[in-house]
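The methods section describes the discrete structure representation at length, but only in general terms. An entry of this sort, consisting of the sequence and the corresponding backbone structure tokens, reads as follows:
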Amino acid sequence: MKAGVRRLVYTSSIHALSRDWTGRIDERVPFDPLNPAGEYDRTKAQASLVVLDAVKQGLDAVIVCPTGVIGPYDYRGSEMGDLLRNFMKPKPHLMIEGAFDFVDVRDVANGHILAEQKGQPGHTYLLAGEQAEVSSVREWVQSVVGIKTPEIKFSAPIAYFVAPLAEIYYRVTKTRPRFTSYSIETLQSNSKISSAKAQRELGYQHRNLYESVRDTVQWWMENKSKTASSVRYAVGKKRSSKV
């Protein structure tokens, strides 16, 4: 507001919304600053409420809430990108029963532009994609790569029992956590999410999920040497030389 910015488009998250909601999730679901699911959920909700409070003070702001973002051009190696890349490896995979809503990063980027151009001040828009079982996403990934490996699937109760041990393993090995209580809870939570408001008011559209998975996998196959640790190393080396 001090800088005279005309409009703020704040990127919140579907995780910022209350998880105590039955039926299809839309913009009626409130932000939950006390969400017990985790710190990420709470801080995203708290920040969203700060933005809405600033709107009352005169800030022109719009909030967008993407779901699980996947897609190409993932040079920094996002959490979802690493998951899909793991499915590309010719090995058995530990899987948790459950589903989530996944959306293409290109559609999310376009949703931000549309929110800036057409969004109503103080309004929230959900940028959803398509709900899918994680096992189905894995099958799509492997069909693009041309492999087929077995999966070891855990039911939710067994997964919750094993998760604390897995989290200890991740801490000891200093690897990115995947099999955690948080991820299990997310896959078991309500992921029937509607972006009807964004479609109606902004003209937002999302592409077919298989297309997103296909493009993501093909991009990973073509850009392995340009991603993840190689990019971080190059950036870190450049920063060190400046210091």
